[in-house]
Amino acid sequence: MITVLAGGVGAARLLAGLVQVVDPAELTAVVNTGDDVVLHGLHISPDLDTITYTLAGAVNPETGWGLRGETWQAMGALARFEAVRPPGSGAAATWFSLGDQDLATHLYRTHRLREGAPLSTVTAEVTAAWGLEVRLLPMTDDRVETRVEVAGEGEVGFQEYFVQRRHAVPVTSVRLDGIDTAVPAPGVLAAVDDARVVVIAPSNPIVSIGPLLALAPLRARLEAARDRVVAVSPIVAGRALKGPADRLMAELGHEPSVVGVARIYAPVASVLVVDTSDAELAPAVEAEGLRCLVTPTVMHGPAEAAALGRTVLGAVPA
Amino acid sequence: MITVLAGGVGAARLLAGLVQVVDPAELTAVVNTGDDVVLHGLHISPDLDTITYTLAGAVNPETGWGLRGETWQAMGALARFEAVRPPGSGAAATWFSLGDQDLATHLYRTHRLREGAPLSTVTAEVTAAWGLEVRLLPMTDDRVETRVEVAGEGEVGFQEYFVQRRHAVPVTSVRLDGIDTAVPAPGVLAAVDDARVVVIAPSNPIVSIGPLLALAPLRARLEAARDRVVAVSPIVAGRALKGPADRLMAELGHEPSVVGVARIYAPVASVLVVDTSDAELAPAVEAEGLRCLVTPTVMHGPAEAAALGRTVLGAVPA
Question: Does residue A68 belong to the interface with chain B, where contact is any CB pair within 8 Å?
Fold first, then answer.
């Protein structure tokens, strides 16, 4: 059993590498749901969907999210309503672009949630529909909402920060609404307990992996499993490969480097995998109490992803 | 001021005729919402949308509902989930086909309703977005649900009867859930009080006009306005032009003819407009206490619709 703590695109790419080197049926991904958003009455789970579409081979390769060959008729038609939406209304929100085929996933999920099915059950159904062998678990069936305090603007939802403002605004704090009462979804704690290796994917440490680590029962199990936990740094040469991890870390008082990543993960991971371009920082990483493993981590394609997967799985004693 | 009590396709066609013969800004349509349905978490108002799309010149001319040039990517993708939906779940309901552009209307409506806007407000916004000059009022902002008792099957929602079962099953009763506590939407009663002519459109008397007549305060105003109320029979030569009005009337103990229609409308209308093919039934209609006006009522195109509109407006004394 291998368990991966996962955000969106970076995690999806690593998982696509791992399925090449181990039996996919032995893989479980515990996925962030703090980014989930209700738009137009639809429940959208961006990280779950990015991983699902990637592992199904259906993801848009240009963006790393959304579906290949997607059409945008619904969003195009929604623009008509922008002119009539009253001030203060969030309706006709075309800033969060939902493709027509992608909409089907949200329609199904929303319908099932309204029927009372927990998100973990719906996720199992959605991944079965897409033919996935990897098991995807939302971190929780409860509502956890990542809220971002934007300087000079106040608190906004994660997607309002990430997509609508293109994460190009200064952040003063991040709050995980609902985290204190949220319970890990069925199977999540066992997935950590039973795993030979737990991999923290190269996702944003603050807003993608952060919610998983802030889920107290999950964090406790990770601390107990620390010797079997390997993290992959999403920061390469001081920069996030994708998204605002570097900027967000700096703004929230973390060093935007593999050393800053090491400090965040030290309580729960015993190994940090860093890119060769950060080789010189290995001693500083190890000074934080983790073993530092230096290897190419940038996944340009399936071959690099598989190689990284193999390295990560070999990073802890069998 | 002209007010039209309206269901879906038949009402939309008559309204498209009326806008040719009077200033559209003088027209109000009070529209059935008993057919409204929540699917995939989206609030769908089929009658309001059919009228909106028709008056906007955007309706699919083949079907009389939906949008011209529509695409069906979302529904196509939804089919993937039919195989994984558990028994008893209504999810992945592709029997109610939602076009991609049409979805935008439902996304907007649902978002606004969830923000707390009443349906009448949202309807004003949607019709403004489509550039309508005619005022559309939902009969109520409250939830009224037309429920249909199907022989040997039990009670189902209206769309489950109408679309999913293609209204090809025997009906033993129709129940309007919520009607007793529903309040007419703002403007509805005044639209009847202030109208020079109130037109009951050629819609299904049981399930389209029925909910409006069952709304007690509205019915009381119609009874008081009876001298100014003109109904157009949706039954022509014993048959419904579209949909199950004939069959439904027979199953529920009404004569499926213009005479049966006359009996239903006699308390609230003083004139019944019937098609020339029913000319011989005029005396029987008048025996029910309404004046019978015989004229071509089948609207093959804009010219016939305009002619019918002109006739209807001239049917009561100025």
Answer: no
Euclidean distance between CA atoms A204 and A208, whole angstroms: 5
How far, CA to CA in Å, does B153 sit from each of A239, A263, B96, B133? 63, 63, 20, 43
Q: Which ranges of chain A does DSSP label H, i.e. alpha helix? A: 9-21, 46-55, 73-78, 100-114, 119-129, 158-159, 188-193, 210-214, 216-224, 245-251, 258-265, 282-287, 302-313
- pTM of the shown model: 0.91
What percent of chain B has a predicted confidence (pLDDT) above 70? 100
3-state secondary structure of A124: helix
Q: Rounded CA gap, B285 and B191, in Å?
A: 27
Using the CB atoms, write b or e for B238-261: b if 16+ within 10 Å: eebbbbbbbbbbbbbebbbbbbbb
Q: Cα–Cα distance between A291 and A288 in angstroms, integer? A: 9
- B108 chain-A contacts, CB cut-off 8 A: 40, 78, 81, 85, 91-92
Given CA atoms B204, B208, B211, B214 in this order, what sign does their dihedral have?
negative
Q: How close A26 comes to chain B (CA, Å)?
A: 22
A1-144+181-318 is classed CATH 3.40.50.10680? yes
Q: Which of B123, B210, B17 is nearest to A81 (CA)?
A: B123
Q: State whether residue A318 sits within 8 Å of chain B by CB.
A: no
- Residue A148 identity: V
Contact A39, A98 (CB under 8 A): yes
Q: Is A298 strand, coil or helix?
A: coil
Q: Do A42 and B93 touch (CB under 8 A)?
A: no
Whether B58 contacts chain A with CB within 8 A = no
Asked if A129 contacts A9 with a C-beta cutoff of 8 angstroms, the reply is no
- Which residue in A229, A252, A27, A277 sits closest to A132, CA to CA? A27
CA-based nearest residue to B99, from B76, B80, B82: B76
How many CB atoms within 10 Å of residue A180?
Answer: 10
> What is the 8-class DSSP label of residue A38?
E
Asked whether the beta carbons of A208 and A174 are under 8 A apart, the reply is no
Residues in chain B with CB shorter than 8 Å from the CB of A126 are 81, 84
Residues B212-262: pLDDT tens digits? 999 999 999 999 999 999 999 999 999 998 889 999 999 999 999 999 999
Chain B CB within 8 Å of residue A74 CB: yes
Query: Of the candidates B44, B104, B96, B59, which has an alpha carbon nearest to the alpha carbon of residue B75?
Result: B96
Q: CA A301, A304, A305 angle in degrees (round to 5)?
A: 80
The ranges of chain A with pLDDT < 50 are: none
Positive/negative CA dihedral, A144, A3, A6, A24: negative
pLDDT in tens, A208-260: 999 999 999 999 999 999 999 999 999 999 999 888 999 999 999 999 999 99
Angle at A253 between CA A247 and CA A259, to 5 degrees: 80
